[in-house]
Amino acid sequence: MTTPKASTRRPRNRFVGRAYGTFGELLQGVLPEEDGDFLVTMPIARWSTATFHRDPELHDVTVWPPHKTKALTLARLIAADHATGATGGNLVLRSDIPEGKGLASSSADLVATAHAVCGVLGIELTPTQLEDYLRGIEPTDGVLYPGVVAFHHRAVRIRSTLGSLPPVSVVGVDEGGEIDTLEFNRLPKPFSRRDQHEYADLLHRLGAAVRTGNLTEVGRVATRSAEMNQRLRPKRLLAALRATCRDVGGLGVVCAHSGTTLGILLDGTETEYRSKLRKTLAACRRLAGNASVYRGLTFDLPAPHDAGGSGLR
Predict the structure, then answer these.
(1) pTM higher than 0.85, yes or no?
(2) Is residue 167 a contact partner of residue 313, using CB atoms and an 8 Å limit?
(3) Element (H, E) at 37
(4) pLDDT in tens, 30-57
(5) Among 13, 72, 86, 156, which has the minimal tally of Cβ within 10 Å of its Cβ?
(6) Is residue 253 within a helix (H) or strand (E), and if so which, with residue range?
């Protein structure tokens, strides 16, 4: 990999980086084009926090917890390319994003790690430069970008920024177990050319809905995407959750297409939101034996655009 040039700033001995998770995807599938695998993020207020502390007595980077080997690999790569002098230090990761559930815990770890290591080294990478690092590690969600984005997760590159959703929540349930992202992304996609054109139409509809704040349409697209994903990673509770969504007046069903979670999308601006939230939580707990609330993130963004080197924020 060619070492990317980075802008510089004042180096520090310690820096804390954060990155958010995403409740599965509003939409995920394959478009009728080369390298057409894509997803659309559903940003939530769950976070991975990485703290990097430079230690001049160390000649390598260590990580805690020790199983966070992907984050360790990224920290070492960035340090090797950009550090002057000793490249050693301690990387500590903390997260309230469940692992192996399809909520972008690994991607958030990596982005938080990049922020932390770059902060200590006194450099700033653009998202495009960070994509170059991530591409060699694993398929990645679009959580390095603010807002709702369409992202080519296998190719690790941005497609477009769709905008920001109004306040929403997802009442999510977990069907249990864990999914290995790398193994999942090796599976062949059972989608026909007709399916691919439907995904293109869904992406167009979703982009318009996000731009205009049309949450009803967002819910429709998310539900259809969950239905189409049943051929690839079926959710045994999908039909029952759709019925529950209709009963409580939810917007639609959102799922982690490569994970074990799915949930009901609620409009946080509705007058009856709190009453509807309590009703939905109770119904989901009866159905699945568990339920959690995931608050959507809103962003103050410029007009939606096709992303280039917009800066890592």
Answers:
(1) yes
(2) no
(3) strand 37-54
(4) 999 998 999 999 999 999 999 999 998 8
(5) 13
(6) strand 252-255
The answer, yes or no, to whether residue 306 has pLDDT greater than 80, is no
Q: Is the pLDDT of residue 307 over 70?
A: no
Look up residue 34 and give its amino acid: E
Angle formed by the axes of helices 127-135 and 69-82, to 10°?
120
Query: What span, in angstroms and rounded, lies between the C-alpha atoms of 202 and 209?
Result: 10
Count of other CB atoms within 10 angstroms of residue 95: 22
Tokens of 272: 């009856």
Residue linked to tokens 């990478």: 125
Q: Residue-wise over 27-49: b if at least 16 C-beta within 10 A, else e?
A: bbbbbeeeebbbbbbbbbebbbb
Q: Are 114 and 17 in contact (CB under 8 A)?
A: yes
Q: How far apart are CA 108 and CA 102, in angstroms?
A: 12
pLDDT one-digit tens code per residue, 221-248: 999 999 999 998 899 999 999 999 999 9
For residue 101, give both structure tokens.
């559930």
Distance from C-alpha of 26 to C-alpha of 164, rounded to nearest angstrom: 13
CB atoms under 10 Å from CB of 212, counted, come to 11
